[in-house]
Write a structure and sequence with these properties.
Elements lengths: L2 E7 L6 H16 L9 E7 L14 E8 L7 H15 L9 E8 L18 H9 L7 H4 L2
Parallel strand pairs: 1-2, 3-4
Antiparallel strand pairs: 1-3
Length: 148
């Protein structure tokens, strides 16, 4: 699952509309690569000024994002560059264009220690993953259809 945790100044992302628009653009990064939409989780963590310090150009609001990828890993320099470019493009209208200082980092964790609703997710580009994508939720599947 991609999980994005967005730590931000309490003066940013103040409406559900703003958050939804950013979460939608983040989800598109992954669905364009074939992942089911429900895999993508975006958490907004607002921090009050007394709990958010940065020496970067104060008093400009700061956004810090951690991205945890489990469902897929980056396999090459070209894939990395493409992924980071898609992240930058998705964030630009929501963060950069608003003049916020920002940074992000990407963590890739082991797929071997991942379950959704107690089910080991199907392997990429399998019939079972296609079913999960179609239904947009985790459902039991036959092992041979999930590549496990």
């Amino acid at each position: 699952m991609p999980m994005w945790v967005i730590y931000h100044s309490s003066s940013t992302f103040t409406s559900a509309t703003e958050k939804s628009a950013l979460a939608t653009d983040i989800t598109k990064i992954y669905t364009a690569g074939g992942l089911p939409p429900f895999y993508v989780c975006v958490h907004f963590i607002p921090l009050s000024p007394s709990n958010f310090y940065s020496s970067m150009n104060e008093p400009v609001p700061m956004v810090r994002i951690t991205i945890q990828n489990i469902a897929r890993t980056i396999q090459s320099d070209a894939h990395r560059d493409n992924f980071l470019a898609r992240v930058d493009t998705a964030l630009k209208p929501h963060i950069e264009d608003k003049g916020y200082d920002w940074e992000y980092s990407v963590l890739e964790t082991s797929r071997d220690l991942w379950k959704i609703n107690g089910i080991v997710p199907p392997m990429p580009v399998t019939e079972a993953e296609g079913l999960w994508k179609k239904r947009n939720k985790a459902v039991p599947f036959e092992r041979e259809k999930g590549g496990l």
